[in-house]
């Protein structure tokens, strides 16, 4: 008589155990969902955002180690935040701060054009400049772009130029920051509070349209993007790359 032995499946260890993740723009949307998933994967999380009240609520919701209310477009504030950290204490940084700028270019002032084209690049560069000395080798900096801005139209205006600048910027920065890795995530429409504020009463119609037209048959949510961001933190073979996550939106738009 023989006794069958049933093997128990090996329990998966948290992929970010013992690591520290800083999320800039972490009080809502993609940033908040990334913080939530990073905590699930065992990371300590530090949240940074402009709105102190929303930041406090977000930090409590995910069990963040700490939170800092500051404007990510302020280089001195970023320098002070990272300078106060002991080195090296950070493994990964996600930057979601900053929103898109749309509209005909000739209707924009020179200062508005500088802000629209340069804001994401300057914020990312200042984060990299001040975070680098506080990051462990093999860690990662993940930036946020988009696929929608690749189209050329009068309505998008300067957004197309700003979008086009991000992939080569991330690739070049990856060479300068090595062995810290740099990658760019490019979502399409994501169902976040930012999308809701931009679309207002048209939000439900946009959701219905995407459910009908996207190859995946559903709307992309912040948890989808967070899963990709955490993968890029974990996969140490990836740097200088741009990863699209739009449910196929760019192919059917």
Indicate the percent of residues in helices.
40-55%
How large is the count of helical segments? 9
Shape designation: globular
Please identify which CATH superfamily we are dealing with: NAD(P)-binding Rossmann-like Domain
- Secondary-structure-based class equals alpha/beta
**What fraction strand?**
15-25%
What is the CATH topology assignment?
Rossmann fold
- The tally of beta strands, per DSSP, is 7
The N- and C-terminal alpha carbons lie at a distance of: 65 Å
Whole-number count of domains: 1
If you average the pLDDT, what whole number results? 90
Query: What top-tier CATH class fits best?
Result: Alpha Beta
What is the rounded Rg? Answer: 19 Å
- Which CATH architecture is right? 3-Layer(aba) Sandwich
At a glance:
This protein has 253 residues and is of the alpha/beta class. The chain contains nine helices and seven strands, in the order βαβαβαβαβαβαααβα.
Written overview of the protein:
By secondary structure, this protein is of the alpha/beta class. It has a single domain (20-252), classed as NAD(P)-binding Rossmann-like Domain (Rossmann fold, 3-Layer(aba) Sandwich). Helix content is 43%, strand content 17%. It has nine helices and seven strands; from the N terminus they run E-H-E-H-E-H-E-H-E-H-E-H-H-H-E-H. Strands 3-2-1-4-5-6-7 form a seven-stranded parallel sheet, sandwiched between helices. The longest helix has 22 residues, at 110-131. The model has no long low-confidence stretch (mean pLDDT 90).
